[in-house]
């Protein structure tokens, strides 16, 4: 059976966790294919909030095999703490499979991440300082340590000693930081982390292909989003991996012909965390209102998100980049109280109108949004379960966004709960 990809279409925080969880109910395997614990998914089940950082959303369904793919970078301490949290809340974690080819986040990655941001000052990127970027940098430099290295203490120590010598020199001579103790690190990783993670480590490429060969359904779950993609995002204010749908192939180890459905998750307005261009950003009382109504604070960091009107130009480009087959629209209910809502349909800069995202960053930083105003609905959507339950103005808004995207809206979120959504008839 073909695979499905769920990908964010904006700057992250679109509510992918909820819709991945919703789609996961009918699949056999859910795979996280990139990112690290810098991205959080929040799922609300029966009034309980589950904040997941590394474990795929499918863990909450007893029949689903959750997989952390080779494209993820893993901090063992964070993963173990997350597994303990889930087990303490009655969730069976024994089904999890962790790729032996996934790279490890090491202590020096966090130190370098922290110091790099500090030294950049006003030009800082706004990273979460979790060591994700430096871990991917070591992966690309071919000096990274992988999960499978935990299973061979001799190899682990050899690699650790070589890399630690170089990293300690950087920390001491460039950043005036104390050297890290390789022996202490080796002891912690091999004696504490390895026994806990050993039962989960697997050849996840074979796990996925065996599942596909049996006709099982596979869901591929991205972290972050299209405009944080290392190649296609608003560089350099991006993550260090490829969240776009194409990244699911390399990050999980399957070919593109296995994928026949790509769901793009879009918030009914736009948010982003940290620095970088944001054409439709709003401020003042309206921003405060949407932040409050939408609980726009980072799942992991607690950082307040920047807020803006829906950007149809971004969505059109995300459709192209990801070959989206449909859109899942989240947080429509957050706009309930507004007398009117705005949608960016184009950009303007230096007398030129852009109906696509300009490739040149200097242009993108100075564009002005061209808006169309639509009437608001000013009523509570939280109990809606069908399109007929939505007022005409809300339906018109959804249809307008769908027409801009050129693909159908298939699901609409009207609240944080697992059951608070509207499925749009095909």
* End-to-end C-alpha gap: 21 Å
Give the strand order, joined by hyphens, for the main sheet: 9-7-5-2-10-1-11-15-19-20
Main β-sheet: number of strands, strand sense, barrel status?
10 strands, mixed
Residue share in helices?
A: 25-40%
- What's the overall average pLDDT, rounded? 91
Shape: globular
DSSP E strands, number? 20
Radius of gyration: 22 Å
The low-confidence runs, each spanning 5 or more residues with pLDDT under 50, are: none
Strand content: 15-25%
Structural class of the secondary elements?
Answer: alpha/beta
Can you walk me through this structure?
By secondary structure, the protein is an alpha/beta fold. 33% of the residues lie in helices and 21% in strands. It has twelve helices and 20 strands. The strands form five sheets. A ten-stranded mixed β-sheet has the order 9-7-5-2-10-1-11-15-19-20, sandwiched between helices. Strands 14, 16, 17 and 18 form a four-stranded mixed β-sheet that branches. A two-stranded antiparallel ribbon has the order 3-4. A hairpin with a 2-residue loop joins strand 3 and strand 4. The chain is globular and about 65 Å long.
């Amino acid at each position: 059976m073909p695979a499905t990809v769920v990908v964010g279409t904006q700057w992250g925080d679109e509510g992918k966790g909820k819709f991945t969880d919703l789609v996961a109910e009918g699949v056999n395997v859910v795979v996280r294919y990139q990112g690290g614990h810098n991205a959080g998914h929040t799922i609300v089940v029966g009034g309980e909030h589950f904040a997941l950082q590394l474990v795929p959303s499918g863990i909450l369904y007893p029949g689903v095999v959750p997989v952390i793919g080779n494209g993820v970078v893993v901090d063992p301490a964070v993963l173990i703490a997350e597994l303990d949290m889930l087990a303490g809340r009655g969730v069976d974690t024994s089904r999890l499979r962790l790729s032996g080819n996934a790279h490890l986040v090491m202590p020096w990655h966090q130190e370098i991440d922290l110091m790099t941001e500090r030294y950049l000052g006003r030009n800082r990127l706004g990273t979460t300082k979790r060591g994700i970027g430096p871990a991917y940098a070591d992966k690309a430099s071919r000096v990274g340590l992988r999960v499978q290295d935990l299973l061979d203490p001799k190899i682990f120590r050899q690699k650790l000693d070589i890399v630690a010598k170089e990293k300690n020199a950087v920390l001491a001579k460039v950043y005036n930081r104390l050297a890290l103790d390789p022996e202490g690190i080796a002891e912690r990783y091999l004696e504490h982390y390895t026994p806990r993670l050993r039962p989960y480590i697997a050849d996840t490429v074979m796990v996925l292909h065996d599942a596909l060969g049996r006709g099982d359904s596979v869901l591929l779950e991205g972290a972050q989003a299209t405009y944080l993609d290392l190649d296609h995002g608003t560089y350099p204010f991006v993550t260090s991996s490829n969240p776009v749908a194409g990244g699911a192939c390399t990050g999980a180890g399957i070919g593109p012909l296995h994928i026949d459905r790509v769901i793009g998750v879009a918030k009914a307005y736009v948010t982003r965390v940290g620095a970088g261009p944001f054409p439709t950003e709003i401020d003042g009382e309206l921003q405060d209102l949407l932040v409050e109504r939408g609980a726009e604070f980072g799942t992991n960091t607690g950082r307040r998100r920047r807020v803006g009107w829906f950007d149809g130009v971004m969505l059109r480009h995300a459709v192209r980049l990801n070959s989206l087959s449909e859109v899942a629209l989240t947080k429509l209910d957050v706009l309930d109280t507004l007398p009117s809502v705005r949608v960016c349909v184009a950009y303007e800069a230096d007398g030129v109108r852009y109906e696509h995202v300009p490739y040149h960053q200097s242009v993108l930083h100075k564009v002005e949004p061209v808006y169309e105003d639509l009437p608001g609905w000013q009523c509570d959507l939280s109990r809606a379960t069908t399109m007929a339950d939505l007022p005409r103005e809300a339906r018109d808004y959804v249809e307008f966004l769908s027409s801009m995207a050129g693909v159908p809206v298939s699901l609409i979120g009207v609240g944080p709960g697992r059951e608070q959504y509207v499925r749009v008839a095909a």
